[in-house]
Specification:
CATH class of one domain: Mainly Beta
CATH topology of one domain: Cyclophilin
Helix content: 25-40%
Strand order of the largest sheet: 9-10-12-11-13-8-7-14
Largest sheet: 8 strands, antiparallel
CATH superfamily of one domain: Cyclophilin-like
Shape: globular
Structural class: alpha+beta
Number of strands: 17
Number of helices: 8
Distance between the termini: 47 Å
């Protein structure tokens, strides 16, 4: 079955091609066509590979569409062939034989070329120092054009530090829109691995709300640069919720020592409801909000959509963190993510020092990638509250 995201991508790309047909040879204003259809291109996370190629020219437009469809369809030859045939029959004849041959070959070549580049590529993880005696969580972003499930292994060069891959758990996908610091519209997906083993009541609450479309159309009503982005309030002012309170869930080995952690907002002990916040990324250990340890339930970590989150965090706000323009959650979805990974780093008691972690990603079909991650364990200077 073709997923809703794929159907949406196909609809958007076909709409662009249909509008291109309206122009006659010599009057092909591709820039205007792209501008006219740009609002349609809210294609989600997997489209970003092709988006950069959509604007400069007609060739690049068709090239980008090819990449978009291929990255969405992952080798669905029937649909790819259908697009190529449709372009040949309905659009390209108006441009003349020479241009028809050129562009038809280009579309087919782009689709074929993208389809054949089957790779698994580990991205650069966001890493900060980890305090002694505490675990650190590191997201492992991966780009996988094969769409086969990705598995991970990790080895530590120092016996004083152990590392493992977090297994199991559902993921939360938030599609968000807004305006960044430059006033440019942004749209993209934020994906989080949920910690249902560490916070089962919290994850169950979030999943129930997502599955009833509670978050669709809500906003991020509070954005504090270098700190957090908070959302999930139906009133949009920080005072609302679903009406169902849940207790706090704390784990000794789960603290605010990582980047992009997903946690429950509250107004005191055991008052979690629907509001949540995401901690800032690209921060040092000293900038992370460890003062929130054992005050707010941590129930997930950002695993993809980092550039979208950077745009979100750059949104201009007033002095209280209220965004000057709406930052909306257009859609929320729970799904099983068999692509992105999460790494848990555990220092031995009393250990400080460095280690190199060798992380290997594989799709089980011979496509692999390996990356070395340097991690430093430093003395813990935070006196955490008891819980």
């Amino acid at each position: 079955m073709i997923s809703p995201n794929i159907r949406r991508d196909c609809h958007n790309c076909w709409a662009i091609l249909r509008n291109l047909r309206q122009f006659r040879p010599g009057r092909l204003d591709l820039g205007a066509t792209v501008a006219k259809n740009r609002p349609r291109l809210r294609l989600g996370q997997h489209v970003r590979r092709g988006r950069a190629a959509l604007w400069p020219s007609g060739i690049a437009l068709l090239s980008g569409i090819g990449r978009v469809l291929n990255s969405s369809l992952y080798g669905n030859f029937a649909v790819i062939r259908g697009l190529t045939d449709w372009a040949r029959q309905a659009f390209l004849p108006q441009l003349g034989r020479r241009r028809r041959r050129c562009l038809t070959s280009w579309v087919a070549a782009e689709l074929l070329e993208s389809r054949q580049l089957l790779t698994v590529t580990l991205g650069q993880p966001l890493v900060n120092n980890i305090p002694a005696g505490k675990d650190g969580l590191i997201a492992l972003p991966v780009t996988n054009t094969t769409l086969n499930p990705v598995s991970y292994t990790v080895q530590s060069s120092n016996p004083g530090v152990s590392a493992s891959i977090v297994t199991g758990g559902q993921s939360l996908l938030l599609n968000v829109t807004g305006k960044d610091a430059a006033g440019q519209n942004f749209v993209g997906d934020l994906t989080f691995r949920l910690f249902d083993d560490a916070a089962p009541l919290t994850v169950a609450q979030i999943e129930d709300l997502v599955n009833t479309n509670f978050y669709d159309g809500l906003t991020f009503h509070r954005i504090l640069s270098g700190f957090v982005a908070q959302g999930g309030d139906p009133l949009g002012n920080g005072t609302g919720g679903s009406g169902t309170k849940i207790p706090d869930e704390f784990q000794a080995n789960l603290t605010f020592t990582g980047q992009g952690l997903l946690a429950m907002a509250n107004s005191g002990s055991d008052t979690g409801d629907s509001q949540f916040f995401i901690t800032a990324i690209d921060e040092t250990l000293g900038q992370l909000p460890e003062h929130l340890n054992f005050k707010h339930t941590i129930f997930g970590i950002l695993t993809s959509g980092f550039d979208t989150f950077r745009s979100l965090m750059s949104t201009p706000t007033n002095s209280a963190g209220r965004p000057n323009s709406t930052v909306e959650i257009t859609n929320a979805t729970i799904f099983t993510d068999n692509q992105q990974g999460v790494l848990r780093v555990t220092p031995a008691a009393g250990f400080t020092g460095s280690t190199t972690l060798t992380v290997r990603a594989s799709d089980g079909q011979g496509n692999t990638d390996e990356r070395q991650v340097a991690v430093t364990i430093v003395p813990d200077t935070i006196n955490d509250r008891a819980f």
